[in-house]
Structures are given as structure tokens and as C-alpha cells.
Amino acid sequence: MNEAVPFLPEVAHQRAVFPDGLLLDSGATLAPLVVAYETYGTLDAARGNAVLVCHALTGDQYLAGRHPVTGRPGWWENIVGPGLPIDTDRFFVICANVLGGCMGSSGPREEMTDEEGNGLGRPYGTDFPSVTIRDMVRAQKRLVERLGITRLLAVIGGSMGGMQALQWAATYPEAVFACAPIATAAHHSAQNIAFHEVGRAAIHADPDWCGGAYWREGRLPAQGLSVARMVAHITYLSESALTRKFGRRLQGAKAVTFLEDVFAVESYLRHQGSTFIRRFDANSYLTITRAMDYFDLAAEFEGDLSRAFQGTPTRFFVASFSSDWLFPTAESRAITRALNRAAARTSFIEIASDKGHDAFLLDEPEFHAALGGFLRGAADAAGA
Amino acid sequence: MNEAVPFLPEVAHQRAVFPDGLLLDSGATLAPLVVAYETYGTLDAARGNAVLVCHALTGDQYLAGRHPVTGRPGWWENIVGPGLPIDTDRFFVICANVLGGCMGSSGPREEMTDEEGNGLGRPYGTDFPSVTIRDMVRAQKRLVERLGITRLLAVIGGSMGGMQALQWAATYPEAVFACAPIATAAHHSAQNIAFHEVGRAAIHADPDWCGGAYWREGRLPAQGLSVARMVAHITYLSESALTRKFGRRLQGAKAVTFLEDVFAVESYLRHQGSTFIRRFDANSYLTITRAMDYFDLAAEFEGDLSRAFQGTPTRFFVASFSSDWLFPTAESRAITRALNRAAARTSFIEIASDKGHDAFLLDEPEFHAALGGFLRGAADAAGA
After folding, report:
1. Which of A4, B111, B317, B343 could pair with B374 in a Cys bridge, judged by C-beta atoms 3.0 to 4.6 Å apart?
2. CB-based contact A248 B193, cutoff 8 Å
3. Do A190 and B245 touch (CB under 8 A)?
4. How many CA atoms lie within 13 A of B381 on its CB side?
5. B15-187+299-382 CATH
6. Residues of A belonging to the active site
7. Does the record carry Iron as a key word (chains A, B) (predicted)?
8. Which tens digit of pLDDT belongs to each residue from B293-325?
9. Which numeric CATH code is attached to A192-290?
10. In A, which residues are within 8 Å of B237 by CB distance?
């Protein structure tokens, strides 16, 4: 075992367990199904004020408050809370760790079970089945039902969370009053699959990956996972954001020495890589990136995305960020066009920002105002 | 030694040897200096028809004809040859392997020498000194002098080759009648440094890199170098080119099976990685990417790029490609503005292309016509 890299700490997450399990798109059944989740705010008596937030690739259910592993603030701390755009004084916010994740939901690092659901005393590892965005959404639906909620006031998510939001609206239209897919796409592009494959290749190349059985060998593919995070992180930022934040500055030196020069941007990326490995599981990364690659909502509907929303009762808020090149505005426009063809109630906004894809996580007042306004309007219309 | 990955084959390159060596920007002296090169066409009696082509990061001196290692056509076969834009019926074309490269010029895989220039029976490896784009250009200048050429009719290069072309014009203005920096920039951006660092991290993470001494251990950091190539290759293409070429097609299957699905774009990238390691040295990759990162031409001139070209006699042809996001048009415009401020004779063209950075290597008729026209005009003006 690499002493410098501790295994992910065991944390007692809030979990819902479904012994009968979940039939997956692959044909496999995962039993029991475990969904780890957090809630914020209070469910009203009519059970009409529930907002489901779907997290991105490396996010988790801890969107506000202190993160139990990193000790840092939640990833949407600036959006979810009392008086914030997703106002926990008014709404009951649910966030579930995605299927295949590593924060307590059924995933590669959880204990594998046999066909009767008996624990086998080892994690799934690479024996965890392939999952899809639709599988993730099905698991969330079970959780929402368990909480006694028939219709969600809203499903909201950015990036992969936006894929889930779209899938929710397509699969369970009657259960989604309002839907906000943010900085996302209705399918994963060739370029994005390519970037994912680089990350996977880096993990596979790490001898500490051990063909996925690092858990058995007491090892961690830390360097491979770190490289995967580094390349992904570049895609989350815009060129102008990198230039503004780092430019060609050197770390700890004024001029090039031709010895151990490190540019500030390199130091930043290395830091991103080395902190990531303390909170994320490599096999989860492989599983979830694959689920994103598989995502192609139109393919479920004979290639016509508008059919996914035909006759939908849901109202939509589509948002993109001008400098996002991972999920560029053109992808959000394509979603909006499909919604318009389906005659769905739709608003679309492109936020001017130089912060790239990460803008959906950052301080973007225009975005926050627009999302908050959409949600308040939906709540008023729904009587929530 | 990894049997599946042969070491780079030994090839007898044409070389110029300079026993007195080269004083580098780092302060180190490299002796002897060896510059491996190829020439195409015939030098005229006045020695006035010489065109120096500078190659990109992973290019080499074999720009036309059969490559001695890969057996494939040269990398600029469609531009350099009889009747082509760089017409070898009229011009004497020189292309040198860059300093730090791995096709015969002084570099990490060549034999290390002591201070008297005596061979030490081992390659430089990571003991090869840091080099800069200016060092590469100085080495080329020595070669050009050795060939008896005082003034080059033109210096032409794309990507890192364009950096060298700019450096040539700035350092040796009297020796450059015409200069064509293509798909390049006057400094390496934070985003580009970041992508390079991902590649380097992947190489460093490969246990077969052996701290750079893989040559001693009979090993090759094939997986790390392959990952480096994969991520770099994504940056050479545009999103639309990847979508057009591959889209979401699966390799060898019509529908997702959730078993061993491979998207066509992944298969392509893996192939790029696995062929690259048969022709490129990992320590060369580290050395040359660092040289690109260091490149900041304005920094030599108190931060004012126009001073690099003050009073220049050289005529310039600046070209960019609309979908190139590695060296976007904005970078070429910045070069052009500096040339304009220096009152240099300058033409700038942005070629509409969806092929990304790689467009400078591909079949782009408008680019070929413009470059050919520029070169013929320069030759006519120079009486060559």
C-alpha cells in the first residue's frame, strides 16, 4: 500500500436501501440497491416543495454544509441554502450520490452481493455492472418515492447533473413540474468521450490499478487517477480563465532558471490531481465516465430529441455559459430547439462568463438570479 | 525490456557536427553539437533559393519522401515537392531535426559527452540540458552557415515550427528574407502549458520511465508516452472534426452492449498513442514540450513583441485556421498587430477550416495557394 495515499475514509452516509434491487439498462440486476443522499430544508405537508439536485461526475450529495471527507464547503454552497437561489427556507432539497459513485450509493467500492443479495466480503471493483444515466435516474426515482414524494417541484443539475435532469423529464414527465438542465448536452460528444478515454487510459496504465483489484492488493492507482483529474480539470476551465488566473507566471520564482521551473498553472493542476485522489475512487471514475459516454437521449426516441418531450407538462430552464467549451452553448441550443419543437414551456439563457464549464459552480450573479427566478416562478405556479 | 515495444530503430541520418558545440540559453554548453537534417531540391549557384522548414513538436526532418522509421510519407508531402507550394523544382528546402529531438540531432537519446566532447557510452537521458526555441534556432543557424547560405529566402513553420520561424526573424533578421509563421503564437499559453503538463505527468507516472533512466533498465515508458500523445492529439483536432470523423459511432458494433464497448474515437486515439511510441523518445518529449512552454518572444524585448521586429527587412506571411483552438486565430492576430506596429511588410490570412490545429498539415487548398503565392512573390522579389 502506498502510505502517502490513504484509502477513502469510511463515512456513515444517510442511505435508503431497496432489497429488491434495480434492473439496469445492461440487463443486470443490482440488489440490494443502496442510494445515499442528503436533504436540506423541510418537506411541506403537501409534499409539493421537493427539489432534486443531480450532481456532476465528481460531485456528491454534500452540496451544502461541511463535506464529511474533505471538510470543505459543499459544492453548491453558494446556490443552496436559506435565502439563496435554491432557498432551503422554502424548498426541501434532495441530493443523492449517483449510482456507481463512491459516497455510499451502490458502486464499485461498496460490498459486492450474490444473487440473493448476500454480502461477499469484498467490494464490487470492476465487477460493478455498467450503468447509464437512466439507471442513475431510476435509482433516484426509487428514493423520491421512498420519501413519499409523487411529483418533484423541480429537478436541477449541471453537467452530468443536467443529463440526469433531462432524463428525469423524459422518463418521468408527470413527476417533474420544472426541469433545469445547466451547462449540459443531450448526448456526450466525440471530443468529450475522447477526453474521458485519456483519463481512463491513465488509470489503466497505472500498475497500482492492478486490473481494477487495487482494493485487494492494498494499493491505489493514485498517479493515474491524478492524471485523469488533471486533464479533466483543464476542460472545466476556459483558456481565458487560465490566462487570467495563471498566465505564464512561475511558481515561486520570477524568471526561468532552466532547472526546476514550475509554472503556476502546473502547480495548480498537480494540486487538483493530488487532492482528488483523497476523495474519489478510481473504479467509480471509470464507471461514471462511461455512463456519460453512453448518454444519448435522442437515441431512446428514434434519434429525434423532441420526441423525448412530446406533450410534456414540465417547464424548462436551459442555461449555458459563453466560455464553456466542454458543454458549449450550441448543445444547450440544440436542447432548446428540441423543447420548442415539442411545444414545451421553455426558457433559455446563455450567461456571459469567461470562467468556462466551472461557471455553473461559481459566483455568477446573473445565473443565480435567473435560476432563482425560474424556481420561484415554478413554485408559485405549482402552489408550493 | 517490454518485448512488445521495440526501442527506436537506429537510422543513419544526414548530420552536421560542430565540435565546438553550442552555448545554450541555460548557460550550459552542448559539445559537440550535432544537427541531423534533410534537404530537398538543389541549391542554386547564388545560394539564394534556400527555404528552411521548421518542424513541430513531434515532427522531424523527413517532410517529404518515405520516412526511414515509419515507412510512411513525410509530414508535409502535400506541400513540399516538385510543383507544390514549396516547389523543390525552384527551391532548396532544408529541414533539421530540432535540438532535443530524437531523429539524430543532439538530444536525450544521443550519446552523452564529457566536457572535452568524449563519448561516455550512454545516452544523455534526463542529463540532456534544458533547451529553448532560441537554442533550436541557433543550432539551425549553424547548419545553414555550414551549407554556405548567408540569407535564407524563407523560414517557414507551423505550430512549434512557427515559433522557430518567429525566433529566426527576431534573432537573425538579415538572414531571413521572408518568414511564414503558421498556426502558432508568440508565447505558449497557460492552457497549452497545462496540456503539456498532463502529458509529462503521464510519462513521469509510468514506472517504466525509471526516473528517466529507462534506457539503462531496458524499459520504455510506453503507456505514459501513449497517454501523453492521446491528450495532445485531441488538442490537434477540432470538436467538429472529431464529430464529423467519429461522432458517437462504436468500433465494430452497431449498438451499445455494456460489455466491451469501444467508441470509434477511442479506438482512433489509442492507435495514435500506440504508433507514436514506436517513433518518439519520452525524454525528447519532455525536453521539447518544456522548450515550447518557455517560449515567450516578447519577454526577450521588454514585453513588447513589436520590438522583436523593429526595423525588420523581413516580409511576413501569418496564417491561422478558424477551428484551431490550440493556437487560435487571436494569437496570430496578436503577432500581426506587433508586426504592423513595427511597420513590417505583413500579410495575414485566417483559413476557414473545421480541421483544427492539424489543418496546417492537411489538404487545405486555400492555405496551400496562399503560402505558395507568398513564397513565389518573395522569390521573385529576391531574384531567386
Report:
1. B317
2. yes
3. yes
4. 14
5. 3.40.50.1820
6. 159, 324, 357
7. no
8. 999 999 999 999 999 999 999 999 999 999 999
9. 1.10.1740.110
10. 191
